[in-house]
Amino acid sequence: MNTKILDLLAERYDSEEEIVTEIINLEAILNLPKGTEHFVSDLHGEYHAFQHVLRNGAGKVKEKIRDIFKNELSEEAITEFATLVYYPEDKVKLIKNSFNHEQELHEWYAQIMEQMIRLIPYASSKYTRSKLRKALPKQFVFIIEELLYKTEEYSNKQQYYRKIVQQIISLGQADKLIIGLAYTIQRLVVDHLHVVGDIYDRGPDPDKIMDTLINYHSVDIQWGNHDVLWIGAFAGSKVCLANIIRICARYANLDIIEDVYGINLRPLLNLAEKYYGDNPAFRPKLQADDQLSDYEQLQITKIHQAIAIIQFKLESPIIKRRPSFRMEERLLLEKVDYARNQITIRGQTYPLEHTCFATVDPSQPARLLEEEEQVIDKLLFSVQHSEKLARHMHFLMKKGSLYLRYNGNLLIHGCIPLDEEGNMETMQIEGQTYAGRELLDVFERYVRHAFAHPEETDDLATDMVWYLWTGEYSSLFGKREMTTFERYFIQEKQTHKERKNPYYYLREREEICRKILTDFDLDPEQGHIINGHTPVKEIEGENPVKAGGKMIVIDGGFSKAYQSTTGIAGYTLLYNSFGMQLVAHKKFTSKEEVLQNGTDVLSVRRLVDEELERKKVLETNVGEQLLQEISILKHLLAYQSTKMIP
Length: 646
What we know:
Blueprint: H1 3-10, H2 16-29, E1 37-40, H3 47-56, H4 60-69, H5 75-86, H6 88-98, H7 102-123, H8 129-135, H9 141-148, H10 158-170, H11 174-189, E2 192-195, H12 206-214, E3 219-222, H13 225-234, H14 238-250, H15 254-260, H16 266-275, H17 294-321, E4 336-337, E5 342-345, E6 348-351, H18 370-384, H19 387-399, E7 400-401, E8 403-406, E9 409-412, E10 426-429, E11 432-435, H20 436-452, H21 460-470, H22 484-489, H23 503-506, H24 510-519, E12 529-531, E13 545-546, E14 551-553, H25 563-566, E15 571-576, E16 579-585, H26 591-597, E17 602-610, H27 621-644
């Protein structure tokens, strides 16, 4: 190794003994069981449902409570304990209000603190003391460690421990300690979180999900097509920006744009009021709990039309300047016969309904009005100067990627584009041909370049981000074309169909999944592919575990818009040292329902894969990093020894 690097590294260690101690520590960690990974996908702004699954560790919190206390507590008491861990602030208030006498409350404090202190060693049994210490509430670390490591072998310190608990209660710190311990338990149950795409769109609170992830102890993100759309908007893509506003209007979530991210929609509303009226095809899709006045719905309907037409206009110049995208068939504004109000697509002519072409010039249908151009420019300026959106998008870039190879598995939101024979589809970009993993790597380089250069709005990198949203060979979209225009304006349902890439039926075959794993330098015997993106229709008997267990699809319908299709309210996947479990979730109603009735959202657990031997840290990505650190430290130790020789 370079001696200058070793000299710099040596400054961190005062003695040979410190280096040796660190090597011993890291070598020992390699032999611990691997921590629990938690996989979720397609959250689509459903913050409250996501929060609950995160807090209960997909059932792992309650499972660990039951393991420790099954012979001491009733099932009702176990549920009460679990609810306290999920929502400690709220549950503590409810429990305190249920007591009539202070003495009863103090007895409960002492009992629940003792139970939580017993639970923590079990929940942290795979971790070092150092890692546990980092998970403890900082203001109580000393006190908790005294209680955690107490021994009943001798009676010398019994009064000491009793006094600690009494003082916590008498000094009014019991609530804070219990709340801190609850969050420690949540953190210990799940070591690492994977979000396999689509945090944004449809649901009302993607920003709250992003804030949660920013504060989460260990997380990675595989971008979904909706996430890339938001990245693209921030990176300078006007057509991506038009799409995110259109989708927010469609699902009555424009407050995300205006109230949450501070983007002024008034210029767009003024344009919409001038040119558009009511239109049933553009009325917002409302959930049962949405409360909008007729006037508010009409405003959204007008905005929806205005931004949709701007979007269709913005698509045309990209398609024309990027022939490698092979999207000429999507120049639909040019295929419209405006006099007859009809369109010809692939030789078939269809009448158009609910049209809103007031700003379209039939001789130059893709030309933006000056007003439209001003509106989209103002919107882009607001987007790129939103501090909160900037924070969220930078986090998406820092923690995100198109795919991830992690602990032997391939995590990817959408697909690996394949032809009908199962071969990797090729795409030509700037004279070079790419396929499979290499194509995805190129896509990601373009996304990162576009994000690094937000001032460039019509370069290839920025256009490529939009292609990932809608292109045939995009690993995030995975369909021949996106039929947004047809769904708005053509009644015939056959025009609405979006033909999927062969990947989506070929992934049922084990040999195809093994081939993909091999292409990504993963062991096809041990590895799995984990997908989101396409809702699993469990209600119709579809199995999320495919290809002999090599393929696991975990989009089960977190989004309320899909729950009637899936029949459930989302999947999560758990992968610990014993193997993989897939958990299906019932519909989440409310936090209040959980607090009052102990209602949980877990339903069916499926064993996906069982390890013959418990998997150790040594066999993980973290293990690879530790082995590298150990190798460097051993080089440093040898280097120090040679310097000491006279």
